[in-house]
Write a structure and sequence with these properties.
Elements (H helix, E strand, L loop, with lengths): L20 E3 L15 E2 L13 H4 L13 H4 L5 H5 L2 E3 L2 H11 L5 H5 L6 E3 L7 E3 L4 E4 L8 H4 L18 E9 L2 E2 L15 H21 L14 H7 L5 H8 L5 H12 L5 H5 L2 H9 L12 H18 L2 E8 L12 E7 L8 H11 L6 H5 L5 E2 L16 H5 L13 E3 L1
Parallel strand pairs: 1-5, 1-12, 3-4, 4-6
Antiparallel strand pairs: 2-3, 5-6, 7-8, 7-9, 9-10, 10-11
Helix pairs in contact: 7-13, 9-13, 13-14
């Protein structure tokens, strides 16, 4: 994604890793304070011994395309070993875990990696993001740890967007569902519970499909032969900006509702709400989204997030049979809240099957993976499911889950942001 996620504890099942970020800005300072401590994970026996990716992905230095080529330029038939030569970390366990995951994730992720220059994983990245300054993706290791020792190396601070939209009357929630249950569960950094690698496969697939959608949107493989190797990656990405997929999507299947654009600016960009916007309710906004082809409010924060959210949902469904739920919920009052206090005013499951959304999702998916055939997948998608109004977010008719898990927790994740999505 190009920047996303939000708040505190247990409903992060609904949200963690769904949205990330992308950034066109000159520095990703909101996501990471400094990267002086990172290093290239495979320091010996690298396929490209002349390259040191760590020297090019710190925001203090701009490298040329020749100094750190996109992976597909160096390796048109990208393999895991070649991807690992571009991994930069703050701790060795992060690189080892990422390598283990690559053998378990959908193979499409390996192909999509060709459009990044490097993969940076560091203890102080939050949330994950894609940065046009380097053409690299930057991953929050909160999604990778398995043991308490690993967890203890990670910064526990929050997302800088946590308080955006506090004054609004609604929340925008999303989650991922498989076979009627949550597709994965959230394990907080401040807890003591450990997890297995199987616990992180789905959230990491979700995150990577989002971030790699940004990378392939901003630098499609077919554009790589036209790059000037003597110029910086940033300048070349900017030079070719008009050919990005997100521009084509906005021209071919535009989103038009200005009210939703304005609300996305509040929730995802931190703009101040007007008095009228503070009164706009979940039912009103859900009705507006029903008339458009986006599958998430985050799509209105940046054209690239529109691409990434459509692709993320499509690929999770295609490769892992996971559905995405999206909903405007009424914001409850009080502090001691639980899942049943969040009532859905408008929501859908599998919105990529909806008549306005499906052609947009197909358009994006086929462009990002041009050698794959998506026709059968989209032609045979089961219909979207619209949720009953005023059903609570964790009603078992929506997702068969241990509802008592939420009833007994007073901290609820507010899912108006999806982590990992920053276009910086």
């Amino acid at each position: 994604m190009v920047f996303l996620l939000k708040r505190n504890t247990l409903l992060l099942i609904t949200i963690l890793l769904s949205l990330t970020a992308c950034s066109d800005s000159s520095t990703p300072a909101d996501n990471v304070d400094n990267l002086d401590h990172i290093y290239t994970y495979l320091r010996q026996d690298r396929p490209e011994p002349q390259l040191d990716p760590a020297a090019c992905v710190n925001n203090s230095q701009a490298c040329t395309v020749q100094q750190l080529p996109f992976i597909a330029i160096s390796y048109p038939e990208t393999q895991i070993a070649e991807i690992m030569s571009r991994v930069v970390v703050s701790h060795d366990w992060m690189g080892a875990r990422f390598q283990s995951l690559l053998t378990r994730l959908p193979t499409e992720i390996i192909t999509l990696m060709g459009s990044v220059t490097a993969i940076v994983i560091a203890d102080n990245i939050r949330p994950s993001f894609y940065w046009t300054g380097t053409g690299a993706i930057y991953l929050d290791p909160a999604n990778l740890w398995l043991t308490n020792d690993e967890k203890n190396t990670i910064r526990q601070g929050g997302d800088f967007r946590d308080d955006f939209g506090n004054e609004l009357a609604y929340e925008f929630f999303h989650r991922f569902i498989k076979d009627g249950q949550y597709a994965y569960f959230y394990y907080p950094l401040d807890g003591t519970q450990e997890r297995d690698i199987e616990d992180i496969i789905v959230p990491m697939a979700s995150l990577l499909f989002h971030e790699l959608a940004h990378a392939n949107d901003f630098m499609a493989r077919q554009l790589m032969p036209s790059l000037d190797p003597t110029q910086t990656t940033s300048s070349e990405l900017n030079r070719l900006a008009a050919q990005r997929l997100n521009i084509d999507l906005s021209l071919t299947y535009p989103l038009n509702n200005q009210v939703l654009f304005d609300h996305a600016d509040i929730i995802y960009q931190g703009k101040q709400a007007t008095e009228q916007q503070k009164l706009d309710n979940a039912a009103y906004l859900g009705g507006l989204m029903q008339e458009e082809g986006a599958n998430h409010l985050y799509a209105y924060s940046h054209k690239a997030e529109d691409v990434a959210m459509l692709f993320q949902a499509s690929m999770l469904k295609k490769t892992l049979d996971i559905d995405m739920d999206s909903a405007f919920v009424i914001k409850p009052q009080g502090n001691d809240l639980n899942c049943a206090d969040y009532l859905v005013s408008w929501g859908q499951r599998n919105r990529i099957a909806e008549q306005l959304t499906k052609p947009r999702a197909r358009f994006v998916s086929q462009r990002l993976l041009p050698n794959s055939d998506f026709n059968d997948f989209f032609d045979n998608l089961e219909s979207e499911q619209t949720f009953p109004a005023l059903i609570d977010w964790c009603d078992t008719s929506l997702a068969v889950t241990n509802k008592m898990l939420f009833k007994n927790n007073t901290k609820i994740i507010r899912q108006s942001h999806q982590h990992g999505l920053t276009i910086r």
